[in-house]
Amino acid sequence: MSSNTTKMAISYALKEIVLEKPLNKITIQDIASRCGINRQTFYYHFQDIIDLVRWTLISDAEKLVKGNKTYSTWQKGYLAVFETIKKDKVFILNIYHHVPREYITEYLYSITLDLLNAVVEEKVKELKLKVRDEDKLFVANFFKYSFVGLVLDWIDKGMEMDASLIVNKLDSIIHGTIQKALINAAY
């Protein structure tokens, strides 16, 4: 098995076991047994279960918004974030309640900043603007905090609200705002 295949198998085993018991009760031996490896193989790839959780979140994040990183499709990418979190509700809530909160926020920031950087770059090119890199990053970060705050609030409230309503409300608020922010930042 390649290194990445092994990591994926370990990650998948963790996600299966989380459906059966809380994250803080899962042992490395549980994970190793589930995917047919020994503990040393686990430690070759990850320092501990928290490191595995972090890798799993980042790995999942990279797959989420592919193909939906444009001004006209960011809503689909953002909705995919909500849908994936809802689909992995048990896993996400286990992480949310048993590991430092910054892991879940880092995961969400990673997804969202990737999406927003692409949208910002697209708008800069489309409008033929000259905007400093730090200003583009500032605009992307501004919206990143809003996007992530909405997701965290949604998780805090039990993921009850229809995610498409949240995305539609956000879209109506920020429609044209990214463009205006970039025009204001242009030199």
If you had to describe this structure to a student in words, what would you say it looks like?
By secondary structure, the chain is an all-alpha fold. 76% of the residues lie in helices and 0% in strands. The chain has helices spanning 3-18, 28-35, 39-45, 49-64, 74-87, 89-98, 101-126, 133-156, 163-174, 177-185. The chain is elongated and about 55 Å long. The termini are far apart.
List descriptors.
single chain; 187 residues; mainly alpha; Arc Repressor Mutant, subunit A; Tetracycline Repressor, domain 2; 2 domains; 10 helices; 0% strand; elongated
Question: What is this structure's SSE topology?
Answer:
Blueprint: H1 3-18, H2 28-35, H3 39-45, H4 49-64, H5 74-87, H6 89-98, H7 101-126, H8 133-156, H9 163-174, H10 177-185
Helix pairs in contact: 1-2, 1-4, 4-7, 5-7, 5-9, 7-8, 8-10
DNA-binding region: 27-46
Domain HTH tetR-type: 4-64
Organism: Bullifex porci
Short description:
Helices cover 76% and strands 0% of the residues. By secondary structure, the protein is mostly helical.
